[in-house]
Amino acid sequence: MAMASRLGHLAIRTLPTSATRIASWPTADSGSRISARSISTTQPAQNVIRRQLDKTNEKLTRQRSPKVGRMEMESDYVGLLKSENIQTILPGTLVRPPLSRWPNDAKSWVRFLWEILKVRTMEAFVNSGIKFQSKPSILKRAIVRRNKSAAVSAAKALHRQLAEALATGDKETIQKVCIKKLSTSLIATVDARPRGRRYGWELVEYTQQFWYPSIRSFRMVPVLKGKDAPIQKQAVVAISSKQRRVEYDDSRKGQGKMVPGSEKEVDVVEYVTIGAMMDGRTYESDAWKIVGLIKATSPEDWAMERHLSRIVEEGDALQR
């Protein structure tokens, strides 16, 4: 495949995401938060992802007979094109933090800026390569478009749907808007709620609208080596909002009344990560799904990711 494909696949294999950067999902449960550990890309999880991708790649290239082989390949390929089957937030995702969280000394500040510029340059190179590959011919426009405004609209809608579904315990909607791994975790948390408790969530307003919502990262990465590999699209959208959360007591004693002190209004900035799979042959994209929340990347977080990536690279070198 083209250079963009090789670089994208390399990014999946070598850049793990620190566990400390995976955020938890806020709910109305008395201010509690739902853990997103199921989508963490720590080193063990990253190894699982690599083995799954390598196993699928091997299966795609192995044929017992021409007819059976084609059927297996098509079945596996179609499965990879479903956004709900996305495994994790793409490793190496860098979310620029607010300036207040940048290093205080000038040297570290410049070094962190340089790291951000390098990551953005690599992302732009891979994205542009995939866009160029989608051109039917040199003189025709590319099929792939980086429609960031559509990604922002999708993230806002999915974020609101999920928050409302978590409050009401709407499992069907949770499954509809999330990848499988995240929905399984969230539904388990809903099932674990005490009986007789009901929760409410309301989006009061979007805040800081001059700055938010905004795209903090937009990536397109082939998930396998080779021509026509499926492509994972990912957008991290920063959303600033005022939310109201409340808890009700539906027990016989509580009679559906609001639990005293449970009503809270909070101002939050959330980095909502959405993903979608794209067919590497036709460049048709599946619907966006919520992959999880991610924290802004601090200099310490990124230093840890760089350290983990070197460990993975050394392990790959030993295996070769």
UniProtKB/TrEMBL annotation:
InterPro entries: mtLSU_mL45. GO terms for cellular component: mitochondrion. The keyword Mitochondrion applies. Keywords: Mitochondrion, Transit peptide. Coiled coil: none annotated. It is found in: Mitochondrion. Its main location: mitochondrion. This is Tim44-like domain-containing protein. It comes from Podospora australis.
